[in-house]
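Priority: low. Protein: DUF2155 domain-containing protein. Input follows.
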Amino acid sequence: MIRAAMLCLLIASPAAAQEAVVRAPGAVLRGLDKVSGAVSDLDMRNGERGGLGRLTITLRECRYPAGDPAGNAYAFLDIVEEGRQDPVFSGWMIASAPALNPLDHARYDVWVLRCKTS
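Result:
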């Protein structure tokens, strides 16, 4: 609850409202299998699905500040685990603050590295 409120404040703050935001064509995500220690980078386009072990990750959208493409990227993700109907995660993740709204999963971690600009 607190994380969601902080995320809303971050996205809807007056400073954020004044700064132009660009919708990127995709994003680069990083996934970690906590059991094996394997790290995977996922280069995804908006609307594309990618896999990480038993997870299916759908990138809905990635945005970044207009004046700083390498800056504070944030992406809307839907993450579903095999054998479950409801997503284990659905929401915005922020590259510079991955702990603000993280995937809460026993085996996997997923976070946003950056938006793709081309």
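The radius of gyration is 14 Å. The mean pLDDT is 87.
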